Amino acid sequence: MENSKTIIVSLGGSIICPSPGKINFLFLKKFRNLILRFIKKGCRFVIIPGGGKVCRLYQKAATKIAKVSFEDQDWIGIHATRLNAHLLRAIFRKEACPVVLDNPFKEVGKEFLRKPIIIASGWRPGCSTDFDSVLLAKRFKIKEIINAGDVPFVYDKDPDKYKNAKFLKKISWQDYRKIVGSRWSPGLSAPFDPIAAKEAQKLKIRTIIILGTEIKNFEKVLLGKRFRGTIIGPL
User: Fold this and answer.
1) For labelling alongside 130, which of 98, 103, 118, 190 has CA 20 to 30 A away?
2) 177 three-class SS
3) For strand 167-168 and strand 144-149, is the pairing parallel, antiparallel, or unpaired?
């Protein structure tokens, strides 16, 4: 893969499926058109979706019925990401590799090099697909990840709890990790998970946080123009 033209997108599961039983097909249609336009420009994409609200719904149901370990809760989340990944692979059938990459270290055949899109999914317990996106960035020697989720910025504190929370346009990994902490728990909702943040800091990978459903803003990121969002990492 050509490093300069390969773009990694960590796509929030909550914008694919904003509520149980509701797929945001209007967003997916616009997202598909956006990716196809940039493929025509010579870009390649690695897209890895999260589990989103479906993941949390199933995790919550399991814990109401029985005492469920964190590991098993994580496996529920992983399979939710795989469901979303297969949805993406289906809508990019002609452009995407025929097999979902369910392990960032998995050996791949020539079909992964012939197609302009790789769809990946969750891998193993202990982290989110954000961490998998960092491992994929390392594998393909890419220094930037677009994290397109359901929040437009990183805030200095939880905006759901504090009305005076301020959004940040830029922040270092060190300062970001002070905000989100260092622990991972199944279904954790954070702009970029703590385990992924630690690895990205070590590898000096920059992450761009944007509201994924803002397609025109998404396009500005892909074009290298000024955009609405937060840059985390090497500035």
Assistant:
1) 98
2) helix
3) unpaired
Question: What residue has token string 């196809």?
Answer: 36
Which residues are CB-contacts of 220 (< 8 A; sequence separation ≥ 6)?
Answer: 226, 227
Instruction: Compute the average pLDDT of residues 169-195.
Output: 82
Q: Is the pLDDT of residue 74 over 60?
A: yes
Cα distance between residue 104 and residue 122, in whole Å: 9
The pLDDT of residue 1? 37
- Quote the pLDDT of residue 189: 63
State how far the Cα of 120 lies from the Cα of 126, in Å rounded to an integer.
17
The one-character DSSP state at 2 is -
Residue 20: HSE in the Cβ half-sphere, 13 Å Cα cutoff: 8
Q: Percent of the chain at pLDDT above 90?
A: 71
Q: 3-state SS of the chain: helix, strand, coil percent to 5?
A: 45, 15, 40
Q: Is the pTM of this model over 0.70?
A: yes
pLDDT at position 91: 97
DSSP-derived 3-state class of residue 208 = strand
User: What are the domain boundaries of the chain?
Assistant: 3-232
Fold of 3-232: Carbamate kinase (3.40.1160)
Q: What pLDDT score was predicted for residue 92?
A: 98
Residue 36 pLDDT greater than 50, yes or no: yes
Check: CB of residue 52 under 8 Å from CB of residue 12: yes
Q: Which segments within the chain are labelled E, that is strand?
A: 6-11, 44-49, 117-119, 144-149, 154-155, 167-168, 170-171, 206-211, 230-232
